[in-house]
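Posted in: Protein Modeling Q&A

I'm a second-year student putting together a small comparison for a lab meeting, and my supervisor asked me to include a predicted structure for Uroporphyrinogen decarboxylase (URO-D) domain-containing protein. I've never done this before, so apologies if this is the wrong subforum. The sequence is pasted below exactly as I got it from our records. If anyone can share the structure token output, I'd also love a short note on what stands out.
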Amino acid sequence: MNKRQVLDDVLAGRPTVGVPTLFWKHFAGDDALGDAAVRAHRDWVTATDPVLIKVMNEQLYPVAPDWESVAPYRVDEPRFQEQLRVVRALVEEYGESHQVFVTMHGVVISAFHSTGVPGYEPNRMLVSKALREQTEAVDAAYQTVAESLIAHAEAYLDAGADGITYAALGGERSNFTADEFARHVRPRDLAVLEAIGDAGGTRMLHLCKDDLDIDRFRGYPTELVSWGARLNDISFERARALFPDATLVGGIASDDPLFAGGPQADRDPDATIERVVAENGGRGRLIVGADCSLPDQTAGRDVGVLAAAAARA
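Accepted answer (user: helix_wrangler)
Welcome! Here is the predicted structure, written out as tokens:
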């Protein structure tokens, strides 16, 4: 049985042999683009044996001089076409054995990227502050970004991708208020996710960062959910209550010592898998993974130790 069928079984709640896993990291520097990106993905897949191919995406939303100037990110732009070329190459290589998901930065983080300011972590308040000061212009920019992301998703699916991983940032309590999120962010996120579903794509909703108010995402349409469980102390039980029909992806902190230069002497990968399964209440609709991207320096062979433990669980 190949991984395409395994993922179908997991999504349907059918039993699988072993526990499927999915871990990812950003491919830095020269490995982020072009043929080097394809090779980096291939090496990672070989080492980590994931249940699906998660295509990373470093082609960020184009920078604009101000909020009024945020323009559509057209699919015919060379930068997007370069990402599409990576997607097509990975679909050609893995499409028969695995389902291929393309990572898309959501409305909030794409809007942040349009400012050209590096580092969301120290500067996350930039987008909410701008919304309060220039509500009309920033809201219009969010709409432009959402429409661009819909076009991107459709292009990826037309290129043979099976699904989209949608990174929905902006749910931190200390960033937008609940009302700001409901008025300006949620409708755009929903539009993108619904368009992906309408186009036949499978959706993986990725919710990360600290101070996450996961309740803001209740009702988002998705088949899989990856969330900052350990970073925010959000249990499997709570995530399951919010997304009752989704497969949960996670259970291990992305900074776990297991990923720091190999399994530590006092760490047992088999026990780690057993713990995650127990926290989920069993194997049903579970993919073991990390809260978010692993550190760039993480070696695939160290992740492979966990994947092997899950395969024999």
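A couple of things worth pointing out for your meeting: Strands lie at 21-22, 53-55, 100-105, 163-167, 202-207, 224-227, 247-252, 286-290. The radius of gyration is 19 Å.
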